[in-house]
Amino acid sequence: MVAPLIKYVNALSAGYSFLISSLTGRSIVSGMPVSVSAELTNYCNLNCPECNSGSGLMTRNRGYMDIDLFSKVIKEIGPCLFNINLYFQGEPMLHPKFFTFLRKCSDINTTVSTNGHFLSEESAEKLVKSGLKKIIVSLDGFDQDTYSEYRKNGNINKVFEGIKFISEAKKRNSSSIRLVIQFLVNRINEHQIKDIRHYAHKMGASLSLKSMQILNKEKTGLWLPAIRKYRRYEQDGDGYRIKSRLPDMCARLWFNPVISWDGKVLPCCFDKDAEHVMGDLNEDSFRDIWNGPRYRIFRKSILSDRRMTEICRNCTSGLRFIKT
C-alpha cells in the first residue's frame, strides 16, 4: 500500500472508532493517531507567569528528548501521521539537535511553535529550506512594556527581528512555509490587536488571536480580557469557569497524543505535568501503549464523566477559538 493511502485508511479507521465510542460510551480504538506532539525539551528561556514550564509550576523532571527515541517513534507511527508538532512545554529551539529532529520529519507535515528568540538569519534560512510546513511565533504585545508583562525576560525586538528573518527567507526562497503570529489576548494587550493585525499583514503572516489559558486561578481577573469574545472563562459565583459545556467525549484521545521529552505518552496537550502517563516508550511500543489498558480506562473515564478529570476542566475542546 502506498504511503499516502496508509494515512487516509488509518484516519478513516481512527475517525470511525471515535464516532462509535462517542455514540455508545464504549472505549473502542481502531488505527493509530493521525497527529502527535513531541516535546523536544521542557526547558525555556522565558518565565511566562501562566505557563507551566516558565512559571516554575512544573513538578516533573526537565531534560531533552533523545534523538534515538524520536527515531523509534517516527519509524513506528510516522507512516500514519498527517502532522507532527515539535513542541509541547518549553522552547523547542533550545534543543541542541533541533534541526536533526526536523530532518527526521521530512515526510510529515511538521509544525514548530517558538517564542522567537532563536530565529537568527541563519536559522530562519534553514527553517525555510527544511520543508517545515508551519512555524508559529508567539508575540503577545506590540511594545516592550506590554510584551514583557507576560513574556518575562523576553526581548520584543529580538522577536521582531526573527519574524523579519523568516518573512524575508520565505520570499527569497519562494517557500510555501506558513508563518503564523500567535497573540495571546489578555487584558493588558487587547488594545494592541489592531496593531498586531496590521503588522502580521505586513510580514506576510497569518494572525492567530488565541484565548489565554490561566493556571493561577486567583489571577484570572487580572488577565481576563475586557472584550468578552476573547475570554476563555466566564464568571461563576465568586470564581470563573471555562466557557465550554465539556461534553463527555474528546477527539484528542483518538487522534492527538503527546510524547514528553523522556518518552512518556500523555493523553493530550493539557496534561502539562504528566499526571496521566499512558505508558513509557523506553519500555513498550507505541502501539502497545495506544491500545493498552491505561489508555482504555482513561478513554472510558472521559466518555463517562469528563468533568471528573482535572486537566479536562481547563480544556478548550468544544470551545470556539478566535483565529483571524
Describe the structure.
This protein is of the alpha/beta class. 34% of the residues lie in helices and 15% in strands. It has helices at residues 3-24, 67-77, 98-104, 121-129, 144-150, 156-172, 193-202, 220-223, 252-255, 286-290, 293-305; strands at residues 35-38, 83-85, 109-114, 134-138, 178-185, 206-211, 233-236, 239-242, 258-259, 264-266, 279-280. It has a nine-stranded mixed sheet. The chain has a two-stranded antiparallel sheet with strand order 7-8. The chain is globular, with a radius of gyration of 20 Å. The model has no long low-confidence stretch (mean pLDDT 93).
In what range is the share of β-strand residues?
5-15%
The counted number of beta strands is 11
Shape: globular
Largest sheet descriptor: 9 strands, mixed
What separation lies between the terminal Cα atoms? 38 Å
**Helical fraction:** 25-40%
- Please trace the helix and strand order, writing H or E for each element: HEHEHEHEHHEHEHEEHEEEHH
**Major sheet strand order:** 6-5-4-3-2-1-9-10-11
How confident is the prediction overall: mean pLDDT? 93
SSE blueprint:
Blueprint: H1 3-24, E1 35-38, H2 67-77, E2 83-85, H3 98-104, E3 109-114, H4 121-129, E4 134-138, H5 144-150, H6 156-172, E5 178-185, H7 193-202, E6 206-211, H8 220-223, E7 233-236, E8 239-242, H9 252-255, E9 258-259, E10 264-266, E11 279-280, H10 286-290, H11 293-305
Helix pairs in contact: 4-6
Task: Explain briefly what this protein structure is.
The chain has 324 residues and is of the alpha/beta class. The chain contains eleven helices and eleven strands.
